[in-house]
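Private note to self, pasted from the team thread so I don't lose it. Backbone tokens:
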């Protein structure tokens, strides 16, 4: 993996990241924003409570404020990775929406399972709870009738499923061990962070944080079966965490090692080529969400969101930092790109922001989420 010269030395990165109290989307569906208020939909937030994981449903008003509607049990338990404070899963994509089939997938890290809900407006109907095929699931991704879950413990693994009329069907041949160094303390820094399909569904991409200091890419054959081993691009001192894609299918990564945002082109051989590298100047830059040609990075250690605008080619230009509540973690953007919602794991809340025409953020609300301190996972429809 290529790196820019601005990266700091590995030893300094490891010390700085370990000292943080916390480690560290769904891509927007449109490049150009639609008129404000044209699209309204629910917001779903995962609690990750160890006494019983729940999904809290909110109504989103025309002005972007949230109003609690209902709470839905997943029939599973949340989990806490060792050393985590504000981000108990230390992952992105733990709550994922399947727009094609109107299904919501949630991980139950403490029960080694995932739950599928049917989505009916602001209402959820639990349809299935199924084994994650590993230990401590933290991230889910979907493309057409294929679903993959990322398990964080025991070296990490990915497990694939096919969606049928009867629900998810686990495919044993679609299981791959990641063989990461997940036993090193603090645990939450060394477990994998996210699994995601590329936009065309031809590959799976996994971020490994400090457990592998790498981005792992699994090519998929026509049936959906991953390659026996991934193509791994690694760099000592890096901690790739949150993943998303720009409008041209290039990979955008929040790297918690140097606290930077990286843009890569995935080559035909599934290796990655670095195209851009911008430091956030913040601490624990872990989650990244796309809103058209803008990207917003959550900085758990600084309690801020960093904005970037994609300019010519793959270049990212900083838009500044916006304060949030304590423990800035997972986030999501409305389909019209007008509002950003950010979980604050330190207080168990969601901060809402209006995205202005110049990409700056204006805070509009803070909404408490019951029993969600340390929780992660948010979907905005």
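Design output:
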């Amino acid at each position: 993996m290529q790196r820019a010269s601005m990266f700091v030395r590995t030893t300094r990165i490891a010390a700085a990241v370990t000292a943080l109290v916390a480690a560290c989307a769904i891509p927007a569906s449109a490049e150009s924003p639609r008129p404000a208020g044209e699209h309204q939909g629910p917001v779903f937030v995962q609690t990750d409570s160890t006494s019983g994981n729940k999904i809290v449903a909110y109504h989103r008003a025309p002005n972007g404020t949230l109003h609690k509607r209902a709470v839905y049990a997943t029939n599973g338990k949340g989990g806490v990775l060792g050393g985590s404070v504000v981000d108990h899963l230390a992952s992105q994509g733990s709550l994922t929406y399947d727009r094609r089939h109107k299904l919501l997938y949630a991980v139950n890290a403490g029960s080694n399972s995932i739950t599928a809900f049917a989505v009916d407006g602001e209402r959820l109907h639990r349809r299935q709870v199924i084994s994650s095929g590993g230990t401590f699931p933290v991230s889910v991704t979907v493309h057409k009738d294929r679903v993959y879950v990322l398990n964080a413990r025991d070296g990490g693994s990915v497990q694939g499923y096919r969606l049928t009329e009867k629900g998810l069907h686990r495919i044993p041949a679609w299981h791959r061990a990641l063989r990461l160094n997940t036993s090193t303390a603090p645990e939450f820094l060394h477990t994998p962070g996210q699994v995601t399909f590329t936009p065309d569904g031809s590959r799976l991409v996994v971020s490994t944080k400090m457990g592998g200091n790498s981005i792992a890419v699994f090519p998929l054959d026509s049936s959906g079966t991953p390659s026996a081993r991934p193509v791994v691009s690694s760099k000592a001192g890096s901690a790739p965490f949150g993943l998303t894609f720009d409008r041209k299918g290039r990979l955008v990564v929040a790297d918690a090692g140097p606290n930077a945002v990286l843009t890569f082109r995935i080559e035909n051989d599934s290796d990655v080529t670095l195209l851009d590298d911008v430091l956030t100047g913040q601490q624990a830059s872990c989650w990244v969400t796309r809103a058209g040609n803008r990207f917003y990075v959550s900085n758990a250690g600084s309690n801020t969101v960093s904005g970037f605008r994609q300019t010519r080619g793959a270049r990212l230009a900083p838009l500044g930092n916006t304060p949030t509540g304590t423990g800035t973690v997972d986030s999501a953007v409305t389909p019209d790109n007008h509002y950003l919602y950010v979980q604050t794991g330190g207080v168990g809340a969601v901060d809402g922001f209006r995205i202005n025409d110049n990409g700056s953020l204006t805070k509009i609300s803070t909404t408490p989420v019951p029993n969600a301190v340390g929780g992660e996972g948010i979907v905005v429809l």
